[in-house]
Amino acid sequence: MLTELRIRNFAIIDAVVLPLAPGLNVLSGETGAGKSIVVGALGLLIGERATADLVRPGADRAVVEGTFDLGDAAELRSQLDERGIDCEDGTLVLKREVPAAAGGRARAWINGTAVTAAVLADVGRALVNVHGQHEAQSLLDPEAQRRILDAFAGAHAQAAAVARAHAALAAARHAVADLVARRDAARKRADYLQHVAREVADAKLVEGEEQRLDDEARRLTHAEELRALAAELTETLEGEDGAVLGRLGALQKPLAALQRIDPTVSRLQELYDAAYYALEDLAREASAYGESVEHDPARLAEVDRRRDVVFRMIKKYGGTIASAIETGREARAELALLDSAALDLRELDAAVTSAEGALREAAESLSTSRQKAASKLARQVEAQFPALVLADGTFHVTLAPRADVGAMGAEDVEYRVALNIGHDARPLSRVASGGELARVMLALKTILAGVDRVPTLIFDEVDAGIGGKVGQQVGDAMRRVAEHHQVFAITHLPQIASRAHHHIRVHKGAKDGVTTADIEVLHGDARVEEIARMLGGDADSATSRAHAREQLASAQAADAAAATVPRGAGTSARSPRRA
């Protein structure tokens, strides 16, 4: 659960520390005081988009930091461990920083380890679930209705299996379609492919051949000149008159005399020997090269013909010998496809049949779970309706078979309600008003509280458009949800605020000439005064205060009523202290 939220330089907030507790936490305050800004800061903390306009005027950066007590959340601990984030003491600190400078990059940390916004969002979604003013409208989305039913049925694994089986079937069908398309294309191009394969094969191309042919053609074209140059080099080195090696041999006598007088010049002898032997090697190599060069017009003509073949193949098939060879290989492969397609298609068709069976089996298992859960969910939601002033309402979960099994299963899920006696059940979108939708949503949240693994639920003014007895019942519903989760509600209704286990008030003031928001944890008379203000009377009058105390006392009765509501599996959060 979230134990503390620290906000600095965010929107109109200068610096606040928001202490939170188990159970139902309520944040109240005058309109425009900054209540929803707190929720915005929390959204930023759990990965929502960061922009420079969030930074308080005059500040260089906004910082939001939240401390969470993980309790025994083994799955989340495992997720953090996989990411290399240490949380051995069960405390998790998320931090987000947004610079005021345009173009600056927001940064994020988890327990001091820098992380991306995506990682922060993944972890944040496992810690906090935010339900805004318009979240009830999501109940009109068939996909949202399906997800709620699957969560209630505990069918996440079955739904995932259906999605995987559907993806496998789609891949198998795509493989069949791809092979058929390639086979048909090969049939249309068969004559051309045979020509290409034959032409490339007949050319007998070899990688690197082009350069070797160019080099040989150059030698054959200049054979006489090359032989003459080699002969000149050989003659200069070891000819009769003044040859280099002969003159170099004459140096041996004075070199030997030097060494007799000064033995330390032996290095000169080594250099002489190396030079002499190297020139001897040069002479031999030049002579051998000259003898190897032949003037062969027939071979030159043969090389030129081969060069023409290679040039033509390169020009037709890709610009290089390697690309021409690959073009021939691809042509042969396409032609081979005509021979192997029938066998391959039989294997792929068998794979499609197997995938269809796997999908059908997975979908049947999911459908069974949904059918069992649908009537159970309907009964439990209806059991919540009287407490939410919907005593005449009925709730139905309809499973409409699909023509084909899809990634989400073999049926469409639709919630239908009849909120008045004598009326037929109709889809939520055609029946429920905004206030009624909010109450249906709270009924569902109350039922799902036992199976929802997210420890902290945020309700941002979901009480909009309701009041009186309905508001009181909504507060009671939130208090029941708080038996399984930490609940943080932003509200303007005293009926809801009076149900809180922990009440915080936000108020607006000024600091250094700039509007700012601050918070105060309310106890005793301060809380009575705030409830009296929210009731719309004179917060200082005895009548308003008596009414406020009556509202606070009625929370005990709400607890007694909550004890009769069916409950799911609890969480590890500590039991909330009573108001």
Give the end-to-end Cα distance, rounded to a whole number of Å: 19 Å
Count of domains:
2
Biggest sheet architecture? 6 strands, antiparallel
Number of strands: 15
> Mean pLDDT, as a whole number?
84
- Class from helix and strand fractions: alpha/beta
CATH superfamily of the largest domain: P-loop containing nucleotide triphosphate hydrolases
From the spread of the alpha carbons, the general shape counts as elongated
Q: At CATH's second level, what is the architecture of the largest domain?
A: 3-Layer(aba) Sandwich
Give the CATH class of the largest domain: Alpha Beta
Q: Are there runs of 5+ residues with pLDDT below 50, and where?
A: 565-579
Beta percentage is 15-25%
Number of helices: 19
Largest sheet, spatial ordering of strands: 2-1-4-5-6-7
Helix content: 40-55%
What are the SSEs and their pairings?
Layout (H helix, E strand, L loop, with lengths): L1 E9 L2 E7 L4 E5 L6 H11 L15 E9 L4 H9 L8 E9 L7 E4 L2 E3 L1 H11 E4 L10 H12 L2 H33 L1 H14 L5 H13 L1 H16 L5 H6 L2 H10 L4 H27 L4 H20 L4 H64 L9 E13 L2 E10 L7 E2 H4 L2 H15 L7 E5 L7 H14 L4 E5 L3 H4 L4 E10 L2 E9 L1 H11 L7 H21 L17
Parallel strand pairs: 3-13, 3-14, 8-12, 12-13
Antiparallel strand pairs: 1-2, 1-4, 4-5, 5-6, 6-7, 9-10, 10-11, 14-15
Helix pairs in contact: 4-13, 5-13, 6-13, 7-12, 8-11, 10-11, 13-15, 15-16, 16-19, 18-19
Keywords:
579 residues; 15 strands; alpha/beta; single chain; Rossmann fold; 54% helix; six-stranded antiparallel sheet; 18% strand; disordered C terminus
